[in-house]
Amino acid sequence: MAKYHVVEKGDCVSSVAVQNGYFPGTIWEHPENDALRELRGDPNVLLAGDRLFLPDKEPKTTTCATGKRHRFVRRGVPARFRLQILNADKPRPNLAYRLTIDGSLVLTGVTTGEGVLDVPIPPDARRGVLYIEEDDAEHTLTFGGLDPASEDTGVNQRLRNLGYLRNGEPTDDDVAAAISMFQRKAGLDPTGVLDEPTADKLLARHDHKG
How far is it, in rounded angstroms, from Cα 164 to Cα 156? Predict the structure, then answer.
């Protein structure tokens, strides 16, 4: 039965889809979600309070030969998590890591030459703990918790993730100083104001877009 789902903090299209028995594309590409898709642009970056339309489910029939084993793979499962680890804007390659998902699933590996880890995770994963062996340090990750870049909270999250803003509730002066530092690094005039060129650069740098 068709219905609307009100997005909660931590939701993304992939998590809503797996929890309700849909393919992610069936939801995100539905005409009823055109306005939201235009507004947000990214199915993995939604804002609490957004409304996602969940259409009626349509059964699919597949013809299979008898007497044989058949393998079906659900689209959108697993999802993928990609993270680049930097130090002073320089990639940290060949770092051994351990990523624990929701306290149970444990993934290990090393970062690429560009300092990237790219792993499959459950679409409805909520929390991760990333342990970097070289640093003997743990970092807490929240999956689905990134707000859209059009929101002040989303801007602050990106500045914080890139190391320009400290943890905690920032003041207006803190944010202006962080934007100025980012602008200098990006080759922009350090006004401390989030104008369109700065917003575009921030989105491209953090979300690898543009």
Answer: 9
- The beta strands (E) that lie in 40-184 are given as 51-54, 79-84, 86-87, 90-91, 96-101, 105-110, 116-121, 127-132, 137-142
Helices (H), the chain: 13-20, 24-28, 34-40, 152-161, 172-185, 196-207
Q: Tell me the CATH class for 3-54.
A: alpha beta
Q: Is 70 left (phi over 0), alpha (psi -120 to 50) or beta?
A: beta
Report the relative pairing of strands 79-84 and 51-54 from DSSP bridges.
unpaired
Give the Cα separation of 206 and 194 in Å (integer): 15
Q: 55: which DSSP letter?
A: P
Q: What is the pTM (predicted TM-score) of this model? A: 0.80
Q: Which residue from 60, 62, 78 is spatially nearest to 17, judged by alpha carbons?
A: 78
> Cα 138 from chain centroid?
19
pLDDT tens readout for residues 32-78: 999 999 999 999 999 999 999 999 987 777 777 787 787 766 665 68
Cβ-count burial 78-105 (b if 16+ within 10 Å, e if not): ebebebebeeeeeebeebebebbbeeee
- For 188, the token pair is 């922009």
The helix or strand, by DSSP H or E, that contains position 4, with its residue range, turns out to be strand 3-6
